[in-house]
Amino acid sequence: MSQAIARLPRPRALLRYLWSLIAVPLVSFFLALLVGAIVIILSSTLVLKNPFDPTLPLTAYQALAQGAFGSFNSVVTTLVITTPLLLAGLGVGIGFRAGLFNIGAQGQFLMGAVGAVAVAANMQSSPPAIAIPAALAGGALAGAAWGFVPGLLKATSGAHEVVTTIMMNYIALASLAWIVKGPLKEMGSNPPTTPDVGAAALPILIGSTGHLGILLAFAAVPIAWFLLFRTTRGFEIRAVGANPDAARYAGVNPRLMIVLTMSIAGMLAGLAGACTILGISHRMNTTFQTKVGFDSITVALLGRSNPIGIMFAALLFGAMRAGAPPMQINAGIPVELVDFIQALILLFLIANAVLRRLLRLRGVAGAEQTGFQTITRSYGRETLT
Amino acid sequence: MRGITKRYPGVVANDHIDLDLRQGEIHALLGENGAGKTTLMNILYGLAVPDEGEILVDGQAVRIAGPSDAIARGIEMVHQHFMLIPVLSVAENVVLGEETMANPVFLDRREASRRIRKLAGRFGFELDPDAKVESLSVGQQQRVEILKTLYRDAQILVLDEPTAVLTPAETEEIFVLLRNLAKDGRSIIFISHKLNEVLEIADRITVIRRGRVVGERRPAETDDKELAELMVGRSVQLTVDRGESHPTEVMLKVEDLHVRDDRGNEVVRGVDVEIRRGEILGIAGVAGNGQDEFVEALVGLRRVASGRVWLNGRNVTGASPRQINEANVGYVPADRHRFGLILAFPLTDNLVLTSYYKPPFAHGLVRDGRAILAAARQRVREYDVRTPSTEVAAQTLSGGNQQKLIVSREFGGDTTLLVLDQPTRGLDVGSIEFIHKRIIEKRDAGTAVLLVSAELDEVLELSDRIAVMYRGKLVAFVDGRQADKNQVGLLMATGGATDETHEATGTST
Q1: Subunit contact B349:A3, Cβ cutoff 8 A
Q2: Do B322 and A251 touch (CB under 8 A)?
Q3: Do A249 and B391 touch (CB under 8 A)?
Q4: How far is B356 from chain A (nearest CA, A)?
Q5: Sheet holding B448-453, edge to edge
Q6: Distance from CA of A242 to the nearest CA of B (A)
Q7: What ipTM does the predicted assembly reach?
Q8: What pLDDT is stored for residue A1 in this prediction?
Q9: What pLDDT score was predicted for residue A46?
Q10: If you ran DSSP here, which 8-state letter would residue B107 be given?
Q11: What are phi and psi of B453, to 5 degrees?
Q12: Is the CB of residue A2 less than 8 Å away from at least one CB of chain B?
């Protein structure tokens, strides 16, 4: 898929190619909505003893869409929620391309936020033009470090990244609590909280909440795409993911690529955390948490580890998260429905092979590492030597 | 089988094929890769449904909807890739699916072993029923596969390229077994593209080309030349004219090389050899005598335990694959799917797999798609790789075309040394002819060529000098033009322990 996307083939072939790319994600999404609809009806009639109402799912989905895109402010909210999902999703997707299943976006996100707030707290008196890039860089570096460690462990000892990144998530959680209560605690705060990010706060560009991070996230899409598909480094990353032995034959050092890819993935998730703290929360307490880490895995899968696909997937998830509270208020459907639908999407995506057969798709575009292979292959055989 | 037709989108895989198999007959099905042999056999075995035509067993039309139907009619298939469970014993593998039970819970191992010993004895071969399959040689594993079919009392056996993985001696043994089976009244379909084997074993030969039967012959009425022409559809040069070699200076020099395999066993145990520019050194040897590890160590894919490798006078011991590649060494790996190609990537990427990072294919970090495409198109044309476009994934090509892809990449430019590990494994006559010619061309252009092949004929045909590898050592060197097949075969099997006339020296004269 690498070259084909830019070297436009004939229209019909292009259409077929595009269809083969998006069919599975699209069908997964609609199947999830369908099952979601059934559950809405069932829970309404059986659990809440409401009269049977076949239009309830439509009402719910309409409220969801309305909440996500119905007004200027809701669109801005959608974009704000999309931002960290997009950045972290890109990171996870690049990992998938290299055959790495990075479950550590969670920890990388948290450390990114810690890194950003740590820098910001010490640059209260600097001008924003210096404080903002510095704080973002701090977050990116901290996230990258949290990706670098599992990468290094895998490259040197073969320790599987699924295991080590999960461990790193716990370490991040505990470190965050300690840092907020200890080194970064604002004098006299109770419960313990870090100082405000002050000069490093991201400026609001649109609406009342649309911060600079949105631009950053969407700018990262073409950059990630260019890296993966137009540079030699991206070729090496994809080669290691698709066939590590052949990559070695080609003169690529797979260990180096693993460390590099994990660091890039961590950096992107770290940026997501930095944007969240600098753009939205501005302060951190010990309960600072996020769902971004795990949502970003589904986003990357749904986007087929292609930066452009990830952008659309992140927008979709962002819209669902943004539309959920208005849906609960206006249609009386609990916000958890969104979690439910996201989980269903993931389930259908992983049933990829079955879906492809039902859709009569052959492995046209599904051949390269797009995440499905990475998470569904057996972990018995490690080809690093 | 009568009038069998099977269409796939864009191709007619089987076009009104008639095939009749008599009791007690060995019937060879000969054809190039992609000729439709496998499709036909899949239809017989119930793995594919024909669009037209019918299958008759003992004169009665039958419908075979799946392998279980086929097995019920006594039709069994032995696949090229064995379907055995390595950690189980021979007996356990054989009875799998039709276990002999001591009681409802436990398997009666003793009874299973007894039956298998009896069955093997009846057809004149020996096999320890209690041995673990993973401890068996490839030839023995194949016998387990055949035993499996006999245990289920197969009347019709389909063997798909059974000799592809065997040594000459093992091939002889399997032939004896097949003849015994035929004598016992069982019918055998023997799929192959090796002409000499087909001529040796078959009672009748049916040749298929592009989905059609193009001829039926008896071995006595024909020869390899005619069969090859039928198969390919044009006259084929079966043995390449290797001409005179003019070796010049030493290009590769290996001194006392020791290499370990993945499990840490020393499988290359002191190899000394020199190869000059303009000569082909063939390494003959039964697979698994350290050839692959030797080659991988030369090209930097495997660590050298001890010893020295000199390339053009430069010490390259322990150099990385990239460094070896930069020294203009071409390498065709034995396992093209593992090392040679990234199957999921398009041909363009695969054609620059070892040069993607340097001009004209990349400028700094940025790849040059246009230059890559131009080079890919040119190589595909020059090496006649059959493909709809250079953008399709390498996995969509046939084995022969995949191999041509690798050859076009590795043979390109001004190579100093070519390391060829099984360069024609699994390929059809036409592709073999093509690649052999290119090898000779490279030699004549002054490249040193190291050729490793399990096909003794290939080594004998191409090599200027032949080294026999046995248990990690080069035990004998023979002049390629005077080598005698039996003599080399004996050296391969015994390492020359009984034959002291051949001095093991690594330098050419």
Answers
A1: yes
A2: yes
A3: no
A4: 7
A5: B329-332, B417-421, B448-453, B280-284, B465-470, B473-479
A6: 7
A7: 0.84
A8: 39
A9: 83
A10: B
A11: -150, 140
A12: yes
Alpha helix (H) ranges present in chain A? 11-42, 56-69, 72-97, 105-121, 128-157, 161-181, 213-230, 232-242, 244-249, 254-276, 292-302, 307-331, 336-350, 352-358, 372-376
Instruction: Mutate one of A2, A3, A377 to test the B interface: name it (highest B CB count within 10 A).
Output: A3
Average pLDDT over residues A311-325: 95
Interface residues on B facing A, Cβ-Cβ cutoff 8 A: 262, 301, 320-322, 325, 331, 333, 338-346, 348-349, 353-354, 356-357, 362, 365-367, 369, 372-373, 391, 393, 395
Q: Is the pLDDT of residue A106 over 60?
A: yes
- Please, which residues have CB within 8 angstroms of residue A32's CB and are 6 or more apart in sequence? A341, A342, A344, A345, A347, A348
Check which CATH number belongs to the domain holding B161 and give it.
3.40.50.300
Sheet of strand B304-311: strand arrangement: B266-276, B250-260, B304-311, B314-315
Q: Is residue B459 domain-resident? A: yes
Total of domains in chain A: 1
Would A117 be classed as within a structural domain?
yes
Is the pLDDT at B306 greater than 50? The verdict is yes
C-alpha pair distances (Å), B144 with each of A90, B62, B133, B134, B192: 50, 29, 8, 12, 20
Q: How far is residue B183's CA from residue B203's CA, in Å, rounded to a whole number? A: 12
Mean pLDDT of B6-12: 71
Structural domain range at position B78: 2-232
The pLDDT of A288-300, averaged and rounded, is: 91
Q: Is the pLDDT of residue A361 over 70?
A: no
**Is the minimum CB–CB distance between A377 and chain B shorter than 8 Å?**
no
Closest chain B C-alpha to A197 CA, distance in angstroms: 37
Mean pLDDT of B332-345: 90
Asked if A367 has any chain B CB less than 8 Å from its own CB, the reply is yes
**CA–CA min distance A82, chain B (Å):** 30
- Per-residue pLDDT reduced to its tens digit, B239-263: 777 888 888 999 999 999 999 988 8
A3/B contact by beta carbon, under 8 A: yes
**Structure tokens, A156:** 């040197």
Determine contact, residues B397/B386, Cβ cutoff 8 Å.
yes
CA distance A246 to chain B (A): 4
CB B17 within 8 A of CB B213: yes
Contact yes or no for B345 and A369 at CB 8 A:
no
Q: Are residues B149 and B256 in the same domain?
A: no
Strand positions, DSSP E, B399-445: 417-421
Q: Classify B40 as helix, strand or coil.
A: helix
A15 falls within a domain: no
